[in-house]
Amino acid sequence: MPHAARRGRGNESRCFHRSLDPQRSRTAICCRGSRPSTAAVLGQRTGGQRSWVAYAEVAAKENDDATLYKRSFELLRQAEPKSPRDAKLLVQLATLYERYADEDHAMQLYQRAIHLDPDQVTAAINLGSCYAKRGRLPEAMHLWQDALRKNPALESTGLNLGVAQARTGDVAAARNTLQSVLHYNPDSAAARTLLRELAQ
């Protein structure tokens, strides 16, 4: 069942947009994913082993982000074989593989998460951004459209889709997408700016 529309960025963690003109902006990710929610993702027990939550709480107390990411990464890598069908865990691990510059592995994990849970919006958004970075805009657009069908209020995803549509020559679709962004996010300055660029 589709998720109810929610204003704001929700599960979004990637920004592809900036400008409709590819000469004025790199077609690359311009914001990274948020810090992994270790307590939520690692909150499970496996046999008689110490709770993943206890490990996560230790990591969460670290002031050094690099230390937190490293510990979270190792914990998630340990948890994956024990919970290979946990789509949320796979998504969190994929975001960390991206952080450590292993995008190929991250994409495989996003794909697995989507296969396990077709309603995995975050995986679709992030995998779309990986495709966009590689110039595979049709595949990126397909994933973003699917995410927006589940939650049409996702602002950055709508902006990404609108820019990709414009860059592939479908200006009418881009306009409709950006107008939809404004409908759900009336304070979106980025959508207004991009619509003005389309009109030029």
Overall description:
The structure is a single chain. By secondary structure, this protein is mostly helical. The protein has a single domain (38-199), classed as Alpha Horseshoe (Serine Threonine Protein Phosphatase 5, Tetratricopeptide repeat), CATH 1.25.40.10. Helix content is 60%, strand content 0%. The longest helix has 15 residues, at 65-79. It starts with 37 loop residues before the first helix and ends with a helix.
Query: Which structural class best describes the helix and strand composition?
Result: mainly alpha
Biggest beta-sheet profile: none
CATH class categorisation: Mainly Alpha
CATH topology, which one? Serine Threonine Protein Phosphatase 5, Tetratricopeptide repeat
Count of strand segments: 0
- Percent of residues in beta strands? under 5%
Terminal CA distance reads: 39 Å
Low-confidence stretches: 21-63
CATH homologous superfamily (4th level) name = Tetratricopeptide repeat domain
Shape: elongated
The topology string of helices and strands comes to HHHHHHHHHH
* Rg result: 18 Å
Which tags fit this structure?
200 residues, mainly alpha, Serine Threonine Protein Phosphatase 5, Tetratricopeptide repeat, 10 helices
Structural topology:
Blueprint: H1 38-41, H2 52-60, H3 65-79, H4 87-99, H5 103-116, H6 121-133, H7 137-150, H8 155-167, H9 171-184, H10 189-199
Helix pairs in contact: 2-3, 3-4, 4-5, 5-6, 6-7, 7-8, 8-9, 8-10, 9-10
